[in-house]
Amino acid sequence: MMPPTLPPSKPPLDAYTRARLAMVERLRKAGIRDERVLTAMSEIPRHLFITEALRSRAYDDHALPIACDQTISQPLIVAKETELLELTADDRVLEIGAGSGYQTAVLAKIARRVFAIERIAQLARESAATLSSMKLFNATIKCFDGTIGWSEFAPYRGILVAAGSPEIPQPLMNQLDIGGHLVVPVGTEKEQQLMRVTRTKTGFKTEDHGRCQFVKLIGKYAWEK
Ligand code: SAH
Fold first, then answer.
1. Contact between 64 and 50 (Cβ < 8 Å)
2. Where do the domains of the chain lie, and which CATH numbers do they carry?
3. Ligand 1 center to residue 46 CA distance, Å?
4. Is 162 in the pocket of ligand 1 (CB under 6 A)?
5. Are 136 and 108 in contact, with CB atoms under 8 Å apart?
6. Does residue 217 have its Cβ closer than 6 Å to ligand 1?
7. Which of 84, 116, 147, 207 is most buried per CB count within 10 Å?
8. Tens of pLDDT along 125-181?
9. What is the b/e burial string over 118-153, where b = at least 16 CB atoms within 10 angstroms of the residue's CB?
């Protein structure tokens, strides 16, 4: 007699995947609505952007230390900044402050092409290696002062700044496409407001999207050191 056929069993989810899906549910509850952002964040293995000793906390909602005294941004702020860009699959995006490369990876899942800048050479090198190990070949990370933008590939549909600035860097506004958004934390060293600048046909529109805390944006059009 033929043995009864069992339905194909799904492999059990590993602990990181379960933690990641729980993180995405919390983002939904916290008000993130853009399904492209939620899908990207349910796919990118955030724990691989973090040193092994901290991996068990990779999916909690807080920033964590990375090399060179910098931080990987907390999941909610990554989701919020990305959502505010209102990206589509056709868009070209610029990111300032690639750090671990996590935010870069989320953008690379959503947009067609991502250009990311990181001022610390070690972080630029390591984040580029992490992205290529994940086969995210539509993102390029280079090391220089991102406050001057990256004019070669401008204009951008979205520009995301992942560090806090005393003011909105003018070159970034100039490199925005009409209808495009620039999201940038602006304020003091301790605390900033998340600002969104939209380029219109005739000028710029600015909105405040609430309080946030980032490490310093250091460069010609931001903090001096
Ligand atoms: N999105 C990153 C955030 C890293 S923290 C992540 O989630 O991992 C912010 C990063 O901005 C730091 O790595 C810091 O070195 C970088 N940074 C600060 N000023 C910069 C500048 N002018 N140009 C490029 N990167 C800058």
1. yes
2. 15-212 (3.40.50.150)
3. 17
4. yes
5. yes
6. yes
7. 116
8. 999 999 999 999 999 999 999 999 999 999 999 999 999 999 999 999 999 999 999
9. bbbeebbebbbebbeebebeebbbebebbbbbbeee
